[in-house]
Write a structure and sequence with these properties.
heterodimer; A: alpha/beta; Nucleotidyltransferase, domain 5; DHBP synthase; 8-stranded mixed sheet; 5-stranded mixed sheet; 20 helices; 18% strand; B: mainly alpha; flat; binds fe (ii) ion
């Protein structure tokens, strides 16, 4: 029997990652940031590659193909053409672009071949949006689907519609329509993100969160800037934007005049709070930013629905797969699933460029040998797992008092604090202990098995509290996560009880299970999940079944036996600005620095006494 | 990581670097920007010159500090 081993790589822009597919099965996928501890690490994912190969027991010399997520030559022509088109205003961009492209990025196949010591013929490249389409379709449970990918920019493409099917067991991705740079919906959203004082390509979720506090009073202005186009999918009026010199100066005078305000400095505090008891009173100048966020969010949703409709019609499919950074917008995803013409929606666990390595590996593998259509290809738990015994041996030497000066601002350990740790023989006892602490209003760090790939923590690298306790959530925000108060928390709920809390328009599908949709909370249930709810009465749920995650589901049920609702507020196990924790030592370091009360790592339970 | 039958032959760098340079020309032409090809060739030449200067230790700082 021939074994095929395909490594997928995505790096060079942001969120570098590696994925390994063996005979059609995704065996490992992880972002480099989880190992290098540098958030959105864009560099060659050396550590993730090593981990992927070690996990599968494969040597680099045994790989049959290494597939890179984009075509560097085409990206370089775009960089060259766009920096020359704006000359001489873009001369700095031109010089900077030439240095990094001629110095490094253009030779990426050589770089890969050198680093892994593999034959050049084994190193292949795909088109970026082809990778996104593969990433969305090959993980989906569909045997045919319309695929919509929307991001900032690939080589030239900024959005694409693909009809995906299988022909003779091999995936066939037929491109139907595309938008090209500079007509980029993703970059429009990122420009607004920069205007609102967040970091573009990172703070888009903050823009979405802020939108719930505002009214879309500028929607008509935004509709003039970007609209659907029968030819090229998306048309952006370039008078408003400066995509050629995006990082230096993203706003044009016309853009600023249309909104009638100046960009928010990141130092200006946004006075919005999801956890406030009553409606929050904000000064007019801050309400302005919330209104701008609401306007771009509304127009983004309208355009995504328009693009999806076009995808549905041109592909003739009621199944929709979504990928690219645009698919991270869970409010827009919810408005897509509301459409009567979409029956089923699939978004891969990591739809952005972090998951592009998965798409590259799956597609590269399928091209060599075919793939069984019609089943979900992989779940979200494809990251690294660690054994906690070695790091746990350090615990008797821990001196919590000495970590005082490393503590997060706003919290100090109690004088004389000590840690006790135990390892119950039966995992049921671990679950009962964690559930009791959660029910008792404690903040519980919960790490189990393999890490999630993608930006969401789905019960394997999570921090959990009761969803009905605002004070605990405030403590979590100020003494553990250092989270901006306008960003809402998410909810994990056992599937059996999801109907009690959420009003869902369609049957539960993977986007409901992987926190990819926002969903309205039933009015009668709002008090019971108040801390995990946004100001507009929605939450971003993880509907968890026993099959999804057995240990986490058992924990939810154990919480339910104590509180009457099998649900917890679930937030990722990291401090703001840092990647999600991986090893037990990283989890312990955060436990030491913050007000977290209980830490569970696999079978190990640590508490502060 | 060890070399094998599928390992990297000595000419790999030439093959891949040449392939990438050729890929750019092909993409420019397909986008009706063939006029930029001479610009590209000039840039490659400059790159090659810098590459060789960079190999001479006393001169290398003049090159790598540019990047
Ligand atoms: Fe992308």
């Amino acid at each position: 029997m021939v074994v095929r081993r395909t490594l997928g790589l995505s790096y060079g822009f942001h969120d570098a990652s590696a994925a390994l597919v063996v005979d059609g099965v995704l065996v490992a996928a992880a972002a480099e940031e989880r190992f290098s501890r540098q958030k959105h690490d864009p560099n060659f994912p050396a550590l993730s590659v090593r981990w992927c190969l070690e996990k599968a027991g494969v040597a680099a010399s045994e790989l049959d193909a290494i597939v890179y997520h984009e075509d560097p030559a085409a990206t370089f022509t775009r960089v060259l053409a766009s920096s020359l088109a704006g000359f001489p205003d873009t001369r700095r961009e031109f010089v900077a672009g030439l240095k990094v492209w001629l110095g490094k990025k253009l030779w990426v196949r050589n770089d890969i071949s050198k680093r892994l010591d593999v034959h050049p013929d084994l190193v292949r490249t795909l088109r970026h949006h082809q990778t996104h389409a593969a990433q969305a379709f090959l993980g989906s449970p569909f045997s045919e689907a319309a695929v919509l990918s929307v991001d900032s920019v690939g080589e030239w493409e900024t959005a694409a519609i693909t009809h995906a099917t299988y022909e003779g067991g091999r995936p066939a991705l037929k491109p139907l329509a595309r938008a090209e740079f500079p007509d980029s919906l993703g970059l429009v959203y990122s420009t607004f993100t920069a205007f609102l004082g967040f970091v573009p390509m990172d703070g888009e979720c903050s823009t979405m969160a802020l939108a719930a506090f505002g009214r879309p009073v500028f929607a008509d202005e935004v509709r003039k800037m970007v609209r659907l186009d029968p030819e090229g999918l998306i048309r952006v009026d370039q008078d408003y934007f400066n995509f050629r010199n995006f990082y230096a100066d993203p706003f044009t005078p016309r853009f600023l005049a249309a909104l009638g305000g100046k960009p928010r400095s990141f130092k200006d505090r946004l006075p919005f709070d999801c956890l406030a008891d009553g409606p929050s009173e904000a000064p007019a100048d801050m309400n302005f930013y919330a209104d701008v966020a609401a306007s771009i969010q509304l127009v983004f949703e309208e355009l995504m629905v328009g693009l999806a409709k076009r995808a549905h019609e041109s592909a003739g499919s009621a199944n929709l797969c979504l990928a690219g950074g645009g698919a991270l917008n869970c409010v827009a995803n919810a408005s897509l699933l509301k459409q009567p013409w979409i029956e089923r929606l699939y978004v891969p666990p990591d739809p952005g460029d972090g998951g592009a390595s998965v798409g590259a590996a799956l597609y590269g593998d399928a091209l060599q040998g075919g793939r069984t259509p019609g089943k979900v290809g992989y779940g979200p738990y494809t990251g690294a797992a660690f054994d906690e015994t070695r790091d746990a041996a350090l615990l008797p030497h821990a001196k919590p008092g000495r970590y005082r000066r490393f503590a997060v601002r706003g919290w100090q350990p109690r004088p004389g604090e000590t840690w006790t740790s135990e390892r119950p023989a039966d995992f049921g006892a671990v679950i009962e202990e964690a559930a009791a602490a959660i029910a008792d209003g404690k903040i519980v760090g919960w790490c189990q098995g393999a890490a999630e790939s993608g930006p969401r923590a789905l019960g394997n690298r999570s921090i959990l509290i009761r969803p009905d306790r605002l004070e605990t959530a405030r403590r979590l925000s100020t003494q553990v996560k250092l989270r901006e108060p306008y960003r809402p928390y998410a909810l994990s709920i056992a599937e059996e009880e999801a109907g009690k809390v959420l009003s869902l328009t369609k049957a539960v599908q993977t986007p409901h299970r992987w926190m990819q949709l926002s969903a309205p909370v039933r009015p009668e249930a709002q008090a019971s999940v108040r801390a995990a709810m946004h100001v507009d009465g929605t939450t971003r749920p993880q509907v968890c079944s026993r099959e999804d995650n057995e240990r986490y589901h058992s924990l939810l049920k154990a919480v339910g036996r104590r509180t009457g609702l099998s649900a917890v507020l679930n937030t990722s196990f990291n401090e703001s600005g840092y990647p999600i924790v991986g090893t037990p030592l990283e989890a312990l370091a955060m436990y030491a620095r913050t007000a977290m009360d209980l830490l569970v790592y696999n079978g190990l339970v640590v508490r502060k006494t | 990581m060890t070399s094998s039958a599928k390992g990297r032959p000595w000419y790999a760098g030439f093959q891949l670097v040449g392939g990438a340079a050729f890929g750019v020309a092909k993409d420019l032409r397909s986008r009706r920007m063939g006029g930029l090809i001479p610009v590209m060739i000039a840039l490659y030449m400059a790159g090659i010159v810098l590459y060789f200067i960079n190999l001479v230790s006393p001169l290398a700082p003049f090159v790598y500090s540019l990047f």
